Amino acid sequence: MPLGERSGDKESRYCGVETEFNDDMPQLLSHNLASAGFDFVVATLMDPAYRPSLMQKDSGGSGALPFAGSDLVLSPSQWSSHVVGKISSWIDLDSDDEILRMDSETTLKQEIAWASHLSLQACLLPTPKGTSCANYARCVNQILQGLNNMQLWLRIPLLKTDDDSMDVDSNNLVDSWELWNSFRMLCEHHSQLSIALDVLSSLPSANSLGRWFGESVRAAIINTDSFLTNARGYPCLSKRHQKLITGFFNHAIQIVISGKQVHSLPKGTTDLASNHNDSSSDGVQRHPLRPYLDYVGYLYQRMDPLPEQERFELGYRDFLQSPLQTFEKDAVKYIQYQRAICKALQDRVPDEKASMITTVLMVVGAGRGPLVRASLQAAEETGRKLKVFAVEKNPNAVVTLHSLVKIEGWENIVTIISCDMRHWDAPEKADILVSELLGSFGDNELSPEYTSFIQPVTASKLYNDVKLHKDVVHFETAYVVKLHNVARLAPTQPPTMKSNQRYKKLQFEIPSDTGSAMVHGFAGYFDATLYKDVHLGIEPSTATPNMFSWFAIFFPLRTPVFVCAGSSLEVHFWRCCGPTKVWYEWGVTSPCLSPIHNSNGRSLLGWAVGFLDSTY
Ligand SMILES: C[S@@+](CC[C@H](N)C(=O)[O-])C[C@H]1O[C@@H](n2cnc3c(N)ncnc32)[C@H](O)[C@@H]1O
User: Fold this and answer.
1) What does the alpha-carbon distance between residue 442 and residue 451 come to, in Å, rounded to a whole number?
2) CA 364 to ligand 1 center in whole angstroms
3) Among the atoms of ligand 1, which is closest to the Cα of residue 616?
4) Rounded to whole angstroms, how far apart are CA atoms 158 and 136?
5) Using a 6 Å cutoff on CB, does residue 394 contact ligand 1?
6) Which pick of 176, 185, 261, 580 has the fewest CB atoms within 10 Å?
C-alpha cells in the first residue's frame, strides 16, 4: 500500500522494509506487505551461510544454489513490484584474503544473475568495506555492462565528519560522498548505478546534505535506532531528520525501514497516524515495525500540497528541452510589463498634461499581441494617451495581430509593422520601447536589457541524459530545464558585459562545510530590468514569484569536474559572434582543464544563442 497520493501530485511514495533472511518468500511478503502495509521488502536472496569455496568441497549435491526459495513461489509481478534483492552483506571484494575476495565476486555475480532472472527492479549492494573499493567497482562495472534494466543501489552511510584532521587510513570515513564518488567514477557514471543512503542518528550539515539531491539517490534506509521517542512513547524523528525525509519525498526517494523494534509502545493505545490497535481483530500480532511505517506515512501526509504552478511543472522536472516557447498564459509576466509601462508613462507625462501629450510606444517583437494589450491597459490605468507601433517579423503572428486589432477596435491607436525590426525605417522616434526577446539565459534574441547568471551544479540525471546521445554535439548544447534533481554548489554570479561579443572568467568557492562535490555543468538564469525597480527574472534569490515562462538553462560539461571542499572552480564563458550566428563557448580551467565546449558554435542545435535570422 503506497503511503498515499499527494493531491494533484502524480507520484506516489513507497516505503519498504529491510528483512532478515527468510526462505519462505510468500510468508515474507504476506507478513510485511499484506498485514503490515509496507510496499516492498528488501530481502536477502541467498542463504548467508553460503560460500562458493565451501560448496565445491562437498560437491556432488544437486548443483542448485541455496537461493531463498524457487522463482516459482511468487508470480513474476510480485517479484518485480515487491522485492528488492539484498546482496549478501558479507561480501568484501577488496579484502586482503584472496579466498574471501574470490567468494565475494562469485556470489555477487550469482545473486545479480538470479535477481535479473526474477526481473527484480533493483538490488541493494552492500557498502564497500574500508576505504578502497577498486575491485568491487571493477566487478560491479562488469555486471553493469550486461545488465537488463535493473538498478543497482549502492548502500552508502550518510556520513560526513567536520573534523578534517581525522585519519582517513584508520577506516573512519571522513565524507561518505567521496566513497560514492570514487565508486561511480570507476564505473564511468553508469546510469543504472545509484545510491541507497543509510540515514544515521546524527546528520551532517545542511550544505553537505544538499549535495545528495543532485545525485541519483533512489532509497533512504532509516534504522529504527535513528528514531527518538515522543511523549506518548511512539517513535518519531528529530526536526532535521523530518526535514530531510520531506526532501526525500519531494525527490521521489523511497524510504526503507530497517532494524528491530526498539520502542516498546504503551499497551492498549492507538497509533499516532492510524487508528488500528496493537493486535488486529483476528488476534494476529501486529508487525513490530508498523509504528515506524505509520510515522513515515504521517510525515508524508502532513506535507503541504504542491502549489498549482508546481503541479503544472511536475512533468517538466529534469527533462532536457530545446528552448523557445512563449507562454501567453503567464499572467505574472504581463503584469510586470504593465507595471513598468505605467511607471514610464507617468514619468514621461505629468498628470496635468495627460490629455495633451501622446506617447509613442513601440512593441518590438509583438508576437500575437499580449504586450500590445498590456501597453493599452497601462495607458488606460494611468489616463495617458498612446500611439503604438507593433513590429513583428513572423508573418503568421502578424495575421493574428491584425485580427486582434480589428476585434478590439484598436485601429486608431495601433499600427502593425510586418517586418524585421533591424530593417525597419521607423517614421518617428519611440518614447518607450517594449520588447520581450528573452530566453532562460537572457538573450535568445540578443536583447540588451538583461543580466545573465550562472552557478555550478551537481546534476547526475541531466549529465546521464546528455551522455545517452553518445556524441559531443549534445554536450555542447545548452538546454532549458526545470531543475529539480540538482545541487546548487555556490551562489550565482553575473557575467555581464556590453557588446554582443562577451567574455567573462568566474571563480566559484565551494563552501568547506558542503564537502567535495562533482560539477556536471552550469545552471543559467536571467534577470531583466524592465523599468526602474520593475524587474523580471528567474535567478533563484530574486526570481519573480509565480512566473512560469522560463525554466533555467543547463550548460553541460563533457567530463564532470571534481572540486575539493573549500576550494574554487574557475570557469570561462564566451559569447561569440559570426556574420550569421551567435553562440556560447565555455570551459573550466581550475581545478582541472576541460576542453573548450562548442568551439566556433559547431554544435549549435537550433539555439545556443541562435541564428541571427531565426524565426519561430
Ligand atoms: C519571445 S516572443 C514574445 C512575443 C510577445 N511579445 C509575447 O510576450 O507573447 C518574441 C517575438 O519577437 C519576434 N521577433 C524576434 N526577432 C525579431 C526581429 N528581429 N524583428 C521583429 N520581430 C522579432 C518573434 O517573432 C516573436 O514573436
Assistant:
1) 7
2) 7
3) 25
4) 20
5) yes
6) 580
Are 460 and 189 in contact by the 8 Å Cβ rule? The answer is: yes
273 confidence band (pLDDT: 50, 70, 90): very low
Q: How many helices (H) and strands (E) does the chain have?
A: 15, 26
| 14-49 pLDDT tens trace | 899 999 998 899 999 999 998 899 999 999 999 999
d(CA 215, CA 229) in angstroms, rounded, equals 31
Task: Determine the Cα–Cα distance for residues 222 and 238; give it in Å rounded to an integer.
Answer: 13
pLDDT digits (tens, 9 = 90+) for 291-318: 999 999 999 999 999 888 888 888 899 9
**How many other C-beta atoms lie within 10 A of the C-beta of residue 344?**
23
Catalytic positions, written as ranges: 436, 445
615 CA closest ligand 1 atom index: 25
State how far the Cα of 99 lies from the Cα of 139, in Å rounded to an integer: 16
Residue-wise burial string across 421-460, b where 16 or more C-beta atoms lie within 10 A, e elsewhere: beeeeeeeebbbebbbbbbbbbbbbbbebbbbbbbbbbbb
pLDDT of 315 reads 87
With vertex at residue 177, the alpha carbon angle to CA 174 and CA 183, rounded to the nearest 5 degrees, is 115
* 421 marked as binding residue: yes
CB of 536 shorter than 6 A to ligand 1:
no
